[in-house]
Write a structure and sequence with these properties.
Two copies of one chain form a homodimer.
Chain A: E1 6-11, H1 15-25, E2 32-38, H2 45-51, E3 55-56, H3 59-63, E4 70-73, H4 80-89, E5 93-96, H5 104-115, E6 122-124, H6 132-143, E7 149-156, H7 163-166, H8 188-198, E8 203-210, E9 219-229, E10 232-239, E11 247-253, E12 256-261, E13 265-271, H9 275-280, H10 284-291, E14 301-307, H11 314-329, H12 340-356, E15 360-361, H13 367-381
Parallel strand pairs in A: 1-2, 1-4, 2-3, 4-5, 5-6, 7-10
Antiparallel strand pairs in A: 7-11, 8-9, 8-15, 9-10, 11-12, 12-13, 13-14
Chain lengths: 388, 388
């Protein structure tokens, strides 16, 4: 450990940036302090003054000021990648808010650029990866104890957002300003966790509903069916219009099953032997019993239930602390920047499948067609310039 | 009420047919008795003798004997439709086991033929429709109280079947003998209930795994994503290889949500107003509260939980009793024969989508392509003749 503290430049003092500033000001991140604050709204200077830190209206000036060792980008999604490149270029450690880009091309640009600067740390703000529940599942799945994946489904419809939320700003829930709806704003956490724990799917077929129950251009409802190869499949369901939202994740493997309710309770069932072995070795007498409801399979499995609490804000502080530790002590990264592309690619592929009504390859994702289709929607919307 | 009892001819005295015979012999169906029993295995005559009823090796002979008013077909799936037509032709009331046909063409043939015999009753054995839980859901959804459907998902993986089950007979789990796996044998009940309660989807995209974790030619794993039109969607997941099976049905509507666990517990949440009205009328202050975790939405909804027991066999007796009542008193049918096509068509469409890796129309289902693809598989298997 060192007494040195990383000086963080916060770009964008909105709801999220303001929260990080407050956490740092309260000393909740032992190895990090606010270095400076940047916002395009001049009236935010008062808050920087209150924290006793320099204020910049131009983020490039802040990057070149010598006031910051690292930055975090709490700005509209389209800006993450370009701000990341400008920071990395200047040797400033870069923690990008998710998504690292709105489209894979943009995400790849910043990820490729970061590779040319191996001495500068580059991370993505996947705070859910610090959630002990999901960390434990990641360890369990990686250990191989439950065997190969067979099927997984996540219904994550707790992202309820009323119309007023969408009416807050011009860029929100637009193609040109945000590049999507629930897939790019709310669900990226689960799109990351799902792939982090279960693996990256090979292809996807999806149905989205755009402006379904909200007056918005983008998707407020998503159903995706993915294929992990070798017969393993999964479904991912999310929306922002279910006031009584469900959060239920199931992961079925060769040797057991995980069920997570409300991101709080985990039920793990472990089979005494791989399911196929139990299946093949079952006698005809046992098969008959099964049909008379007399077969007791409980001796072939054990079930464990764990409850996890949650401390609001702790996740965000943990991400900041880990990022500072990477800089100060070369600690292992929680979410390396390049991991950010998986969620972006899956979200893009879900959009593209729903637009083309065809199954879309994730392995060989056609990012040019995606860009062309996205630009069509940005142009039709007529509020923001198209992208290249 | 009348004292007259319907004399039922049971075609096929296997596990299912034997169970019906026992129920009737025990007097569990007040308006029905065994009229005769038919089986191709001569050794089954002893059982008919024990019940004191005539035995036939040839079902046509039984149909023409004058011993039966009605029949039920507990025989391999491919035979249901042709036996139905032969019975209807002779004025014998016909209760077909599900599925009414293995493919829609076959199902349509018997359904069309039945229309030419309006005086003869024609039903399908969907015993789950007598389950009070699903009957209540049907009434609730039809009442319009919860408003239009938005989304539904059913994970029904409690159909675990070990390898020994599949090894019991030559025709089981083959293309030529059974015409499919979990979709035609186990899940037809849920395919029927789902469409009975939520409506008939317009199209489907599906991924099935054939012989995935069992040594069989047909599917033991199914993922289907359907579209009901107007943005309403659904997912249906089933398999026979999950020993720790899940049975969870969700139905989200404009004014509430239904969650069913294990076909036993129903949780109904009713919104005080349609969700879109609550969304639009929410003040910015309330939106801010939502993000600070301080918004109390509980005043906008009420939740009711109901537990349902189950009496094994009661469902089957109820179906037989209703069918007899249709014959004797022209009672309203529980499951008219023509309803049988919905489950068959959806199962066929799921197969076809998984084979072609394309979305398939259910509205305008291409049954010729389906037949051609099915026959390819029957021919490759080389155990049974192809179909036409």
């Amino acid at each position: 450990m060192t007494d040195k503290k990383v000086r963080l430049g916060i770009i964008g003092l909105g709801a999220e940036g303001g929260m990080y500033a407050q956490f740092l000001a309260e000393g909740r991140v032992p190895n990090m302090v606010i270095g400076a604050i940047c916002d395009t709204l001049p009236e935010q200077k008062a808050k920087a003054d209150a924290y006793g830190v320099p204020f910049y209206a131009d983020y490039i000036e802040m990057l070149e000021s010598g006031d910051v060792d690292a930055i975090v980008t709490t700005v509209p999604h389209y800006l993450h990648a370009e701000m990341g490149i400008e920071a990395l270029k200047r040797g400033i450690h870069t923690l990008l808010e998710k998504p690292v880009g709105v489209y894979t091309k943009q995400a790849r640009e910043v990820i490729e650029f970061a590779k040319t600067k191996p001495e500068v740390k580059f991370g993505v703000f996947f705070n859910q990866r610090t959630n002990p529940l999901y960390k434990d599942l990641k360890v369990l799945m990686e250990s191989g104890e439950l065997g190969a994946l067979r099927h997984t489904s996540w219904i994550i419809t707790t992202w309820w957002r009323p119309q007023g939320y969408y009416n807050q700003s011009e860029w929100r829930a637009t193609w040109g300003g945000e590049g999507g709806g629930v897939l790019v704003n709310q669900a990226p956490h689960q799109l990351d966790l799902w792939q982090w724990i279960c693996g990256v799917p090979k292809n996807v077929f999806a149905k989205c509903a755009y402006g379904f129950k909200r007056d918005i251009a983008v998707e407020d409802e998503v159903n995706a069916l993915v294929d992990f190869g070798d017969g393993a499949t999964g479904t991912f369901i999310t929306c922002t219009n279910d006031m009584m939202g469900t959060d239920r994740l199931e992961i079925l493997c060769d040797k057991g099953k995980i069920v997570v309710d409300n991101s709080k309770q985990v039920t793990i069932t472990r089979l005494s032997q791989p399911e196929q072995v139990l299946s093949v070795n079952m006698s005809m007498e046992e098969v008959s019993k099964l049909f008379m409801g007399q077969l007791d399979t409980s001796t072939m499995m054990t079930t464990e239930t764990k409850d996890y609490g949650s401390v609001w804000g702790a996740q965000h502080c943990d991400v900041l602390e880990n990022f500072a530790a990477q800089i100060l002590e070369d600690a292992a990264p929680l979410a390396p920047g390049e991991d950010g592309i998986h969620g972006v690619r899956l979200a893009n592929a879900i959009h593209l499948s729903s637009w083309t009504r065809k199954e879309v390859s994730i392995d060989n994702f056609d990012e040019d067609t995606y860009m062309a289709e996205l630009n069509k929607r940005i142009a039709a919307e007529g509020k923001f310039p198209t992208r290249s």
